[in-house]
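Need the bound structure for NDP, inputs here:
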Amino acid sequence: MSAAPVAIVTGAAEGIGWATAQQLAHAGWSVALFDLNGALAAERAQALGAQHSGWACDVTDADAVKAQVSDVVARHGRIDGLVNNAGIADQTAPTLKQDIDAFDKVLAVHLRGAFVMSQHVIAQMNQQARDAHGNRGAIVNIGSIASFGGIPGRNAYCAAKAGVLGMTRALATEWARRGIRVNAVAPGYVKTALVASLTERGAIDAQAIARRTPMGRMAAPEEIAQVIAFLASPLASYITGAVLPVDGGWAALGAPEAALGPLQED
Ligand code: NDP
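Answer from helper R.:
Posting the output first, comments after.
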């Protein structure tokens, strides 16, 4: 059992999820790290300290999610935060050559995964006592610039990330009166393995992204993690149903990128 607030982070062994697990641990949470790679999740948890735990869990497997969430409650006693971070990149073929199973898989990880995780975690949060502001727990979902804008050919990813915002608002409004907050962050491009694999496959051009981003660079994973941790924390006690872009100004730009001027070297 744990006196510290407890958070589950999915896809926590790598990238933004791992940065978020570290940020939450630093802020005093006990973190349950869920990942397809259970061995790496357990290793990461051990590196964070004895009050943290690592679990093998495929978020698309409803039975596994049910069992693992129940194991987390048995181990840590409660769940105060859930970060639905697990995600995969899209196929890179043009629409007419895209594979329907690959399409379904992207939707399953991002949408079915976040839904099933939220179902089981909300059932637990809903039984917990309210804090001084009347809240019982918080969920943070991960959108993207693909939640707002079309990326040619990335059909499933754009649909999934737009869907994440819809589900965020639906859950937020359903559960607000029960004291469960649900929000989303919408990161721009972040330097993680997911983006490295898209770069290697020629699906994205890192220099072109830097030129299109007002701040002129990709994010580091911890810059997304800090905002996720804020939305999960009591500092965000009156925020629900919100989407916070963390994108270096990407969504704010309403002019050709030439209006930004050259990338600065100094
Ligand atoms: P990474 O690929 O670096 O990490 C994703 C993690 O999720 C991996 O550890 C992966 O495990 C795990 N994972 C994948 N599928 C499942 C599953 N079914 N169940 C449990 N865990 C799973 O990705 P990022 O850190 O870049 O992305 C994290 C989230 O942020 C995603 O939702 C992504 O869409 C979103 N995002 C990322 C951006 C970016 O630029 N990087 C921008 C905007 C949003 P394994 O390695 O074993 O497959």
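Comments: The chain has eight helices and seven strands. The two ends are 50 Å apart (CA to CA).
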